[in-house]
Design a protein that fits this description.
Structural class: mainly beta
Radius of gyration: 18 Å
CATH architecture of the largest domain: Sandwich
CATH class of the largest domain: Mainly Beta
Order of helices and strands: EEEEEEEHEEEEEEEE
Number of domains: 2
Distance between the termini: 7 Å
Number of strands: 15
Shape: globular
Largest sheet: 5 strands, mixed, barrel
Helix content: under 10%
CATH superfamily of the largest domain: NigD-like, C-terminal beta sandwich domain
CATH topology of the largest domain: Immunoglobulin-like
Strand order of the largest sheet: 2-3-4-6-5
């Protein structure tokens, strides 16, 4: 699954949503938003999007036909709002472009094999948020010219406690020489976590960064996980020449 990278200096305002201009009852074709959301396929060539606040978006027009999502596929979407409720959906939109985000399940804790399989390579943590049943992580890492795909995973901190909300983010660069810094974005599906039964719990995620280990705490409620922000990666969709694949 391809994930495009952009240079570290390309982002000025990470978790902000550039909303469509909707001051009146009309919609401007010149307005757009760049947002992370979940794609839901209906058939081989048909899908809709689910925003993290639960709204559903139906593509009335599509300028990007390369996208063919899997079930519960996270994506970065540049879209223009065209209408209010339409045929059972919250809004009709025009898709200006869409890039899939590497979307993964939580990986198993392998005990003594964690380091050799999942790696211990450091990252620069840029942003982490839970929304729409996913954990979205934006990070920076060093890349070289080996052509090797980097391996990223979210694993439980303990191999023996399936009910824990403590996790580790792991990065395996496979000895790719550190030549230049670039960014990556990955989403982890949280649907395998136990139900919180209406309560809000704390997800604790440990990251191995260039400055040492850090822990981030994220509020999580399986019934109300509706973060309404997004990562604005690049409104002009400029990917660097260091486009890589994550796995």
């Amino acid at each position: 699954m391809r994930l495009f990278f952009v240079m570290l200096a390309a982002i000025a305002g990470m978790w902000t949503f550039q909303s469509c201009d909707n001051d009146d009852d009309s919609y401007s074709l010149g307005a757009f938003a760049v947002e992370i959301m979940t794609a839901q396929p209906i058939s081989e060539d048909s899908y809709y999007f689910i925003r993290d606040n639960g709204e559903t978006l139906w593509p009335l027009a599509n300028s990007d036909y390369r996208f063919s999502p899997q079930y519960r596929q996270r994506a970065q979407v540049n879209y223009t709002l065209l209408s209010d409720s339409i045929s059972g959906y919250s809004h009709g939109i025009k898709v200006n472009w869409v890039d899939e985000i590497l979307t993964k399940a939580i990986a198993p804790n392998l005990g003594e094999r964690n380091d050799s399989i999942y790696g211990t390579d450091p990252i620069k943590l840029l942003a982490v948020e839970a929304g729409g049943g996913f954990l979205d992580i934006l990070f920076g890492a060093n890349y070289g010219n080996s052509g090797e795909s980097h391996y990223v995973n979210l694993i439980p901190s303990s191999a023996n406690d399936s009910l824990s909300y403590d996790f580790e983010f792991r990065h395996n660069a496979y000895n790719d020489p550190p030549m230049v810094g670039a960014q990556g974005l990955v989403s982890f599906d949280l649907s395998s976590l136990p139900e919180t039964n209406g309560k809000t719990v704390t997800l604790r995620i440990k990251f191995h960064t260039f400055d040492g280990d850090v822990v981030r705490e994220i509020a999580y409620n399986s019934a109300k996980n509706t973060y309404t922000g997004s990562v604005l990666l690049s409104s002009s969709r400029e990917a660097s020449s260091l486009s890589r694949e994550l796995k």
